[in-house]
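Forum: Protein Structure Q&A
Topic: Joint prediction for protein chains with partners

I've read a bunch of threads here and the consensus seems to be that you should model interacting components together rather than docking separate models afterwards. I'd like to see that in practice. Below is the full input, 636 residues plus whatever partners are listed. Could one of the regulars post the assembled result?
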Amino acid sequence: MLYLFEQCLNGMQLGMLLFLLAAGLTLIFGIMDMVNLAHGSLYMLGAYFAATFVEVTDSFVAGFALGLLATLIAGMVLEVIAIRPLYGRDHLDHVLGTFGLLIFFNELVRLIWGPEGRTISLPSEMLTAVQVLPGVYYPLYRLVIILATLAVAALLYIIVMRTRVGMLIRAGASNREMVGALGVNIKLLYTLVFGLGAALAGFAGMMQAPISFVQIGMGENILILAFVVIIIGGIGSIRGAFAAAIIVGLIDTIGRAFLPDLVRYFLSYSAGSSAGPALSSMLIYLLMALVLIFRPEGLFPAAGK
Amino acid sequence: MSGMITPRNAFVAAVIVVLALIPVYAAMTGNTFMMTLFTRIIILAIAAVSLNLIMGFGGMVSFGHAAYLGIGGYVIGILAKEGINTGFVQWPLALLVSGLFALGVGALSLRTRGVYFIMITLAFAQMVYYIANGLDRYGGDDGLTIHKRSEFGGLLNLSNRTVFYYVCLVLLLATVYVVWRIINSRFGAVIQGARSNDRRMRAIGFPTFRYKLVCFVIAGVICGLSGALLANHTNFISPAMMHWTRSGDLIVMAVLGGMGSVFGPVIGSVALLVLEETLPHLIGFASHVITGKEVVAAKEYWQLILGPMLLLIVLFARGGIDGLIASARRG
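Posted by a regular:
Agreed with the consensus. Here's the joint model:
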């Protein structure tokens, strides 16, 4: 039971990470009608920037703040140079163009940071485990990830629902032409939204970095999971992305923890170890297929679409 | 018809002749690398042509086409591992399994369109990728070596490099012909009509879903054939065969060559893979000319050029190479 609780926390942590990526993707899709495969590259860039700045400043917090700022700027520059000409073209063009960008960024990172990966080491006070329930200890840093992402999600909610920029973002999502006709600088709005998405992805990358590894292509597999999240949640819906991210995170983690034993129970020991992880990955896609059959618009479709 | 000898047809004929003469050139120069490279080009061209059938003519942008490469390959590999080496069983089964998978994926994903379709095909391919990773008996993520190529009684000896090359080439030409016939049939007209305006096609009484599904399955079967050939070519299968970037490569081939024509993806496949081989040398050469000495690093980072090049092709040369040639006459 305690093990299950711990796995739920792990699932939450993965889910929150997915949310950060999916929120940016879904914003960019909902507002600019743009499919961005290079979103995973921004996740990677965020991690590399953070690794470098933590090294330079010798401070975890300052390094992350600078890394976040750098990713934001990188995202906005990328939008102005390469993404802007792609607006209004068909989705195949987006896929191809951003696929090219993804190849470019992988190579650029190799050129700048070299082929071998980086690690970010946590400050020693982060390395402890805290007692979350009587008898259950959980690594502090993972809790920090969950809480920090929840805070970011709340901030995002406030920005989108309670500020003037957020109002423009929502207006842009429901009727682009009208917002432009009313005299809003739509180009600037797009650049801001893309930058915001980039910063969210970069934040996800750097938060994950200390518990995994900073390496080339690190954003690619998680990007596909983020796509699945926004399909399940409903494209363009941040609320949907939030719920679906948690669902997918929980299924993936709990599946990985318990399916191998389940398979072992019915089949053999080795079958469990090998088929378990594959099965739990499949569960997510199965869920996606079910959503598509019964609610093609997603579980929590964006309003007014 | 202003005659059959248009620049485009002449170019297509020239490409076919060059492909047919590669083994002769390789035999004369002893350049076996050339044979390996072009066998690979031809096999991937089959996959790209099949992708173009649904993508270019049907408007169904599948971002999971590499899954069929993997499925075709894994059927061959798994059967070989279990001791069944005859191609008369291996190949039909590879096509059948690919077709069944396409039927399942198509039935689900064709309910959607646009971005949803792109992402769903991607997700299903990713699912197969993870399944292959979990197949411990067949190598898991390390892959599996195939010790014997498919055997066709005494008819064909695929272990012979040249025979294998021509088998692939004949299958490519057959694929191009079949796809060309499909496109120019009533069935093909419905598919292309559904791409331009699905609702109107349904209004005039065509159940477009069924037409598109059949087309999707045909493409899957052809790509499964390509996968079977690829497994025989490399004598090796691994999940990397269906990594999602491979699906991306196939799209690049189709677009680079030109989606408007049946033969375009063949040109795209040749262009992309030859570029991959030569671009590092070209960059090395350019850096040599500019700086006066060999810059090793410049050679290594050739993908820095490939990425932005894709973006530029998307922005400025949507017709691909085929489009450039077709417009040369008017130009």
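The domain at 2-121+130-294 of chain A is CATH 1.10.3470 (ABC transporter involved in vitamin B12 uptake, BtuC).
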